[in-house]
Structures are given as structure tokens and as C-alpha cells.
Amino acid sequence: MNKIGFNVLAWTAAVSDDLFPIIERLKTIGYDGVEFYLGPQEAAAYQRMGSFVKDLGLETTAVMTVGADENPVSESAEVRGRALDKIKWAVDRAHDLNSKVICGPFHSAHTVFVNRPADDREYALAGEVLNAAADYAAQANITFALEALNRFECYLCNTMEQLLKLVKAANHPNVRAMFDTHHSNIEEKSYLGALQTIAPVLAHVHISENDRGTPGTGQVKWDDAFAALAAIKYDGWLTIEAFSRNDPGFANAIGVWREFNEPWDIAENGYKFIREMGLKHGL
Q1: pLDDT, tens only, 223-274
Q2: How many CA atoms lie within 13 A of 239 on its CB side?
Q3: 239 close to 204: Cβ distance less than 8 angstroms
Q4: Tell me, what CATH number does 107's domain have?
């Protein structure tokens, strides 16, 4: 059975001791690991969290984004330099958490558009930044799992075909890809075709409903998704990523204007759903 994780963004984008009781309860549900957003907290907060989670016998993964002032595809060398610095900083914080995976769309600035499709130069620029950052990540045995987002949040990578192009541009063994059922539900023709495309470099999977609520309660074609994951023999994390308005600042930044499901409903019923689908499809 694949490891099952839960992204605590359903509660907060902050890494703090306030999450300790939540993480303890996630363990009692049966989760193998917890995923954290790499935000602006001090190193000490990440170090305490890493020790706490390890002592509980759980693992961690991490997710990050970059903004306009640290955009890897910027024409400005200064901005790209800040992007490299930001990703290296994130590697340090992931190391504090004992994470071996940093996932997310940090190949380009979130929700920053240029009113045209991405071009080859932008893939090359992002690849250069990611290659340099991956050299740094390799020292901590950390893998980047880059994420394709839907067309409303990103223009560089919307599909697995584009994401594979980016991974090839980075040309580093520590730069790989992730698959998110929410974004793929919008952008791909089929789960099987998308997963077959990205299978050679797939390192992480987000299980996310079409409305970002409890997996299994919406319109995602879950049998197709799990059957496709089984067909490519995926053996990595299946991590639930769902959102709420518990952290208003983060919710406002990603356009979450209503509650989809209560976080504990997502955590408890989402875990049961993944277990059931995994057993059904042989994951």
C-alpha cells in the first residue's frame, strides 16, 4: 500500500507548535505522514516540528510556491537570483522538517501571467534555476516534485506534457514531477494518458477533489485516477491536499471564498476513501 499523507494547509499555512495536537490526531486516523507549506517562519519552528513529527513516528513532505519578486522565468537575472535563493532557503527548511520531497509549482510565480503562452526561453530559464537549486537539494537528499497547475493559476505548466518538458529542461536527477488530481481534472484529456506521460519522472501525487473538499465527494473520476496510478505501478505518496478558510490570509491568496468541507471530515473520510480505492485498484 502506498503511503498516505495529509497536507495541513486545510488548517493553516504556518508551521507552529499549534499544529501538534492536529498532527497527533492525524496519526490516530492512520496517516503515514504530514505535508507542510514552506512559509516565512523561522528555522527554529521547522526544527521543532521536524523533531515532533519524527518522535511520533510519522514522515514529512513539503510544498512551496514563489512570487513575482522571485520568479524563475523572469527576464531579470536579479529576480532569478532571488528565486534560487528562495528555493535554497526552502531546502534548508525542508531539511529541518526531515522531508525528502519538496513539491509545488515553484518553477514559476503563482498567478503571474504575461498574456501569451510560455516559450522555450522560459522553460530554459526555469530549468537553469532548478538545476542549480537541485545541486543544493541533492546534498540533503531532497527531490523536487514540480507541479503543473490549471490555466487560472499558471501559464508555464498546465499539463503533464508541459511538465515533462520542464523536467527535461532542468536536466537533474533531483528534479522530478508531481501529479495533482484537481488540476488534471481541469487540464487533461484522461488520467491514464497524463500519468503514462509523466510516469518516468513521477515522484509525488496529490489527491484533491474538483472542489478541493473531501476526496470522493465530487466529480473527479476516481476509479480512472487510481486505475491509472496502478497501471504505471506508482509506489509513492498519496497526499490529500484540500483547502478551507481556517487561515484567511492563505485562503484569500488562493481564491478560497467558501468552505468546501470541515477539515476533520476531509481528513477522516479522505483517508478511508484512499484506503478503499487503493485496495480496490491494487495500490
Answers
A1: 999 999 999 999 999 999 988 677 777 767 777 677 777 899 999 999 999 9
A2: 31
A3: yes
A4: 3.20.20.150
